[in-house]
Amino acid sequence: MAENRLDTAFRSYETGGFFDEMMDPQGAVRPHYRSFADGFRGMPEGTFEEKRRAVDQAFLRQGITFNVYGDSQGTERVFPFDLVPRIIPADEWERLERGLVQRITALNLFLKDIYGNQSILRDGTIPAEVVLTAKHYRREFVNFKVPKDIYIHICGTDIIRDERGEYLVLEDNGRCPSGVSYVLENRRALKRTFPDLYERCGVRPVEQYPAELLAMLRHIAPVDDPRVVLLTPGPYNAAYFEHSYLARQMGIEIVEGRDLLVKDHRVFMRTTKGQEPVHVIYRRIDDDFLDPTVFRRDSALGVPGLVSAYRAGNVALANSIGTGVADDKVMYYYVPRMIRYYLGEEPLLASVPTYLAGEPKDLPFILDHLDTLVVKAANEAGGYGMLMGPMASAAEREDFRARIQADPRNYVAQPMIALSRHPTFVEPGAFAGRHIDLRPFVLFGEKPVIIPGGLTRVALRPGSRVVNSSQGGGSKETWVLYGDAQEAKAGGQPVDDEPRAPAEESALGEEKRA
Amino acid sequence: MLSRVAHSLYWLTRYVDRAENTARLIDVALQLYLDLRPTAGARGDRWLSLVESSGEEALFRTLHAEVSGLTVTEFLVFQEENPNSILSSLTQARENARMVRDQVSSELWEEINRLYLFIRSPQARALLRDAPYELFQQVKNGALLFQGLMDATLVRNEGWLFMRVGRNLERADKTSRLLDVRHATWPPAGVPAPESQEDLLGWAAVLRSASAWEAYQSLYGTEVSPERVIQILMLSDDFPRSVRFCAREVNEALRSISGAPRDRFTNEAEKLAGRLVAELTFSTVEDLCAQGLHAGIDSLQAKLNAIGEAVFGTYIDQSFRLPGDFELRQQEEQQQQDSPVRDLP
Fold first, then answer.
1. What is the CA radius of gyration of chain B?
2. Who has the most CB within 10 Å: A105, A204, B165, B266?
3. Which domains does chain A have, with CATH numbers?
């Protein structure tokens, strides 16, 4: 198999006992990476480092940066981009795609149900108190009919692979997830950098995303020829680049709260020629800040009266209000039940085994295993409210023990997953394995649409599983290959076609650890 | 077009032009003071006139004890606290460009972003020390590239008209300030006369800084006369940085926004712009200098400001209270929603 090995740069590459996306345990290149490896082999040493610098410079020049919070100088950084693409063969992607569509379909039915008849709560399939006490459950919107019955229009589902290469859903982000602009800009950058590699491998395009997004937004409009706008918190927001990027790509206006006003339950924007009607708002502001007359009174970002216009059916919002309940980490545990309940199907994508501190059976187990488990607060994001048991100090564990006991409803625990790794450029001329995850973006309009791939995030520091950019996190291109790509189905990791037993059963019962 | 967007486009071009003209202003001063050999005391005074012309003398005094070429250039080029320094202007320009990125071409955005990154780089500081002429040249060239990209890549829509208004209002103001750098040598009334050979060098430096040297030569030959310099910078119909030329541009752009005919006005901004054009059209250099050119320039600047305020009042004023900047910024930042830059499990 010597012809399948990359030479010099990969000579000392080790998979280190992890599932490596590119190399099998014997150190041979997996079939779906062979075209890439062949093209890559011809590259003179040093080229990679040069290209990487050029891409960084281009990102800085184009202002593809994010703002660093709490920095009065307005420091901006480039989100580090690793040039080695993560490649997904056609059949794997197809399974992922079906699993994601199944999941968002069930989540939307669930939201429609809990804001409507609540049958899943009435018959006890999911405990009512868990849903009704969820931090982001919006009691005010019970019995309110959202346009076309769609709650989550855009979903960013985080997916990881375990030590066996199995894809697992880590969490759903149903509140306007971000990151898609990096998918599109990374693609543009890599195409310019390695045009020949690109062609050789047969990569499915992602550039249609803005058009699909706009089509989805128009689909939920209350009128035939709608005006669609993107509502941003403003230029100081970390994701502002993405907001303005998407607005530009879709050819719609990017507005701030102060640009909008509501009269007679209709939304207008303030223009130089007076006030013009607005019909669909792709909002990138949290529920809490949308309308100071309904939610947080001190919101300076929202539009007074927006909720009244929404209730009157004169404006559509994407995503709808109240979808945050689906992001609750306790709800994650129940998603497999939702899929069976609403769709009568078995979940196609496995979940991470999850223990609920709110379950009397699980609580003692969690407290006894704080040194091995990952504990998460149900409604915190961005790595806050999380205990990584094996890495934590005794004091941190005791702190979490107290927190869990004080508020068991809002804590869940999961085994540590040995995330898959991917060759990543780490220093001039060398490649090493780094942990990665994947966030595909699912659009739910007339029908579900997923652009092939998504954002692959990588923890750039050796051994690190943290992809936070301030701690050395970065991104990669994600290549989904065309079905006819050579060897896509041959060899490599055996593909487990059986839908895996969903996590919840085992989670409640016997011990299970990774 | 959104009012806020019009506002940002207007200020984007104003700030770029402001940075460019500040570079021109220091450039002319450098040329003057290198050509002339003043007595020790006079040197500081000359530099101070530069600060005066930017209207920030009080601020300057709080930041610097000594008036010298060094402190004045620092104040006008890199001082963060000076809202009109080149660095502040380019920062503001870029901030406005960021807000309207979806409205301008990527070439235009990248150029303003590049200029901003340049002025904040250590290389820019090194240049001011080692080759100041080169630094000002780079700022000017960047700004000119920006103007060119504006003309070559932007759709001629309403936003473009607001950019034209901003650019030409700022330019008219700054051309007059460029001239005003020399006011210490002017008589209280009447057209300044050539004082000496050195004085003529000074007038020539003003022309060069306004990029008017070649235009002047082709019209009048190489002999420099104050009256003609004032003519070309204030009243030329054809020179694109002259005050009259810029005022006409403002007037035309304003009328294109509203569709008002030339001989009518539909709002305060159009009325004031129309009046200023008429005044400049039916004035001679003698008229401008009747009460002394310095006073004439002061009154001109007041009129340009009034037009700017009227534009704001007509098109951009939002009738509701804006939250404090700090409060707004905090909330903007809080909206993390789940940014891609966060932690794995």
1. 21
2. B165
3. 94-153+204-343 (3.40.50.11290), 353-415 (3.30.1490.270)
